[in-house]
């Protein structure tokens, strides 16, 4: 993937594969913000695909990564949305959640608003509604929701395709 700010350079040239991890967020915020959204999305998808087996894969990794991307970029904003997102992240971290799960929790609020907007169920949603929902979202609510609303698919074992191909060749 080419970085338009550095012609001829790949986003992975200088170890940029480490530019994003869901447990820490973007490691270099300035470099992260120079990337376009598709490059950011690729990094978020890659980072999730590399998580260990303790972190279940979401059923739709692309959608999950897109919501992560929205949250990560909200956390970097210097406005009311950014302040509310950072306060919510802190609230979850102080309640014992790791950063990845806190970002997932904020992502649920984002996803609810996106879903309502797409369905047209709420008409024009005032920005304050989102901010209020974010500010009022509690770790307890996330615990209840995450236990029932998080479809996951089993994680594929690394190297399984290679083993399957080599066993087919032998037959």
How would you describe what is shown here?
The protein has 171 residues and is mostly helical. The chain has one domain (16-170). Helix content is 59%, strand content 5%. Strand 1 and strand 2 (25-26) form a beta hairpin. The chain is globular and about 35 Å long. It has eight helices and four strands. The protein has helices at residues 29-34, 37-49, 61-75, 80-94, 99-119, 127-136, 139-148, 160-170, and strands spanning 20-21, 25-26, 57-58, 152-153. The chain has a two-stranded antiparallel ribbon. Helix 2 packs across helix 3 and helix 3 packs across helix 5. The protein starts with 19 loop residues before the first strand and ends with a helix. Residues 1-16 and 150-171 have low confidence and may be disordered.
Return the average pLDDT rounded to an integer.
Answer: 77
What Rg, in angstroms, do the CA atoms define?
Answer: 18 Å
**Which assembly state applies to the chains in this document?**
single chain
Residue share in helix? 55-70%
Q: Give the biggest beta sheet.
A: 2 strands, antiparallel
Strand order of the largest sheet: 1-2
Helix-strand pattern: EEHHEHHHHHEH
The domain tally reads 1
Unreliable segments of 5+ consecutive residues:
1-16, 150-171
Number of helices: 8
Kindly estimate the percentage of residues that lie in beta strands according to DSSP.
Answer: under 5%
- Alpha-carbon distance between the termini? 38 Å
Overall body shape: globular
